Amino acid sequence: MYRKYFLLIIFLLTSLLSPAQEITIKGNVKDATSGEGVSFANIHVIGTGNGTTTNEFGNFTLNVNSASALKVSAVGYKTDTVQLKPVKSSVSIVLKSSETNLNEVVISGTMRDAVE
Description:
Strand order of the largest sheet: 3-2-5-6
Radius of gyration: 23 Å
Distance between the termini: 93 Å
Largest sheet: 4 strands, antiparallel
Order of helices and strands: HEEEEEEE
Number of strands: 7
Structural class: alpha+beta
Shape: elongated
């Protein structure tokens, strides 16, 4: 009788100690209006320090936990969150343009060798 309980406890502990399943996903980030790839968008796995950026065509590859969620952001676009449940090996993300416009630009620098 004790042997059955002992084996049950061993199996339960082994399943808890096993690492989460990691998968490699490939994806692309596109603009909602033009359908073109969004260059250099940031993709961050929520709850981890894992992340990447898209290439000039909006494509990316990332190793994630199968139960992860992605936070996608880019300059001039609204930030979006994508759930990876059910498990997906590829994902297509469409970002909408942000309504805010940059009306002011601040330029900072140093003045060296201005007067000779």
